[in-house]
Structures are given as structure tokens and as C-alpha cells.
Amino acid sequence: MDVFNTFIEEIINFLGISQAWDILQSGNYEALRTYEGITALIFPIIPLLILLEFILGLIYKKPQTKVYKITFLTYVLNRFIGRFIAIAVTTFLIGVLEPYAPIQTSLKWYWFLYGYVVWEFAHFLYHYWGHKVRLFWCLHSTHHAPEDMNLSVTHAHFFLEAPYADAIRTTVCILAGIKPEMLFIIMFIDGTYGAFIHVGENLIKDGRLGFLNKIILTPSHHRVHHAKNPLYMDTNFCNLLNIWDKVFGTFQNEEKNLKIEYGITRKMNSGNFIDVYFGEIFALCKDVYHAPGIKNKLAYIVMPPGWSHTGEHKTAKIVRQEFLKERSMD
């Protein structure tokens, strides 16, 4: 009976309906005017869309079962071993760093705009380094392993990635003077939108979202980010506001005549949980073990994926540059 109750509790937690259900049961609809009430209504949207997307996949006969299987196993594992680490890291850094902020903001709307731009910059840094530093790529690669795109991919993360990401984002935001209350609001908004941009073609065929494609980062842009096509590799690191990608030259629109190929360039079995979750760590350990000298061993850890001590580099930057060069000659 305890196992059954735990199972039901996990389903409720996944769907995010516990708070909304409590409000409905109490009849206290005034609570919907509060921050907690608003989040209680928004939390269930993404999980319910995941279920809808899965059902539509069955109807369209494009179930993407391999992706759902791996992301489900990843979600279950992370619930057990990584549940509270990111929260603890965020709370700790706020307490340590807040006194050192050179400026102090308030909850005014203009400070919120400032806070979101700063948060997006911090997100860009974490995400960029997750692709450009081999050790951090080992934490991030699980998210890129699925060979199809759907909303469940938002749960495909190595358990240490969230603490790493929140450590960078929280540090930048708190030192920039963003109040913790505002930071948590931004985290909620950005997390919800960040889940939505993983929506697959079973639910939204054209991820460009019309005119929004020129204003914000859309599912189309994020599909490009998850692609292993040479043109698309290591682009679109932002989450909602794509200003930093445009500032640093990593912005790339989806081209209509170039079909997106999802996944990572390393040969792998995307249906094997061990390979998806630990494969890049095993590959890094192997390269470090066989590398000659301490300098090369350390280089494999901090240099971009694809770097080689032999000089035969296959980094995303080099692959993309070669592709662009060849295309310009056609």
C-alpha cells in the first residue's frame, strides 16, 4: 500500500497539480491572485502538454518511444539522487554573495527587466561553457543525446548539471544586485518557457511561431540548438531573449531546406540509458587515460569536445567553419 501511495504521490508531483488541487478543495479562490496561486495554475501546463504530445505521437504513429523511455529513466534517477542539490546550492550562494553586491535592486518593473537580461546572460555563460568545456559537456550531453525532440527532453539531464547551472546563474545574478525574491520569479518564468521550447513537431509542427521568431527565442531556434548538423552546432545558447547570442555571434535561424538531425556526434546508442547518461564521462576518462603527459590530460578536461592532443581536432567550431567554407565555394 505504501508503494502504491508513493507511486500516486510521484505522479501528482510530476503533474504539478497538488497546489491547484488544494486550492480547489479549500474553495479559497482568492489564493489565485497570489504568486503561489499563479504558479499553481502554471506548473501543470508543461506536464499535461507532455502527455498530450505523447498521445498525439501515438495517433500520428510517431511515438518516439526511445526518447520517452530514456527521459523517464533519467527523471526517476534524478528524483532520487539530485532532488535537493540545486536548491541547496542556490540558497547557499545567495547567503554568501548577497552582501557583496555593488548595487541593490527592488521589485520595480524596470529592475525586473534588468534582472531578466542579467539572468539571460548568466544562462548564456553556463550553457556556452557546457558546450565548450569537455568536463561540463559531460554534464550537459545527456540533454542532447535524444535523437528526436519532444517536451520530455526537458527532463533529460545529468543530475549534477542543475547544481552547476544554478551555481553560475545564481552567482552572476546575486552579484548583479538582483533580489532573491525577483530571482525566484525569473527562475520560474524562465524554467517554464525553457521547458516549452522543447516542444516537438507532434504538437507544434512549425516551431517558428510566426512573427515571434524575430523577437524571442522560439522552439525553432532551440531545435537548431539540439541539432548535430554542422551549420547548427553550438548555436542559440539563450533561453527566451536571444540578445546574447546575437551579441556573441552564436545566433542561427532554422533553414527551411536543411532538415534538423538531432543528437550528438559521438557514435552512441540513444536507447541505452548507461550510454546516454554516462557515455561522455567514460569517453573523457578514456581520453585522459591514454593522453601523454599531465598537460594533455588536463587539456582533455578543459578544452572543447573534439579537441585532440594529436592536433586532429574535430570541435564544433572547426566543423562548422569547414561547412561554411565549403558552402561558400558551391
TrEMBL record:
Bilayer-crossing regions: 38-60, 80-97, 109-129
Highest taxon above the source species: Bacteria
Entry keyword annotation includes Lipid metabolism: yes
GO terms, biological process: lipid biosynthetic process; membrane lipid metabolic process
Keyword Cell membrane set for record: no
Domain Fatty acid hydroxylase: 113-250
GO cellular component term, pick one: endomembrane system
InterPro entries: Fatty_acid_hydroxylase, Sterol_desaturase/TMEM195
Subcellular compartments: Endomembrane system
Primary location group: membrane
Keywords: Lipid metabolism, Membrane, Oxidoreductase, Transmembrane, Transmembrane helix
Coiled coil feature spans: none
Membrane topology: Multi-pass membrane protein
A GO molecular-function descriptor: iron ion binding
Name of the molecule in the record: Sterol desaturase
Lineage summary: Bacteria, Pseudomonadati, Bacteroidota, Flavobacteriia, Flavobacteriales
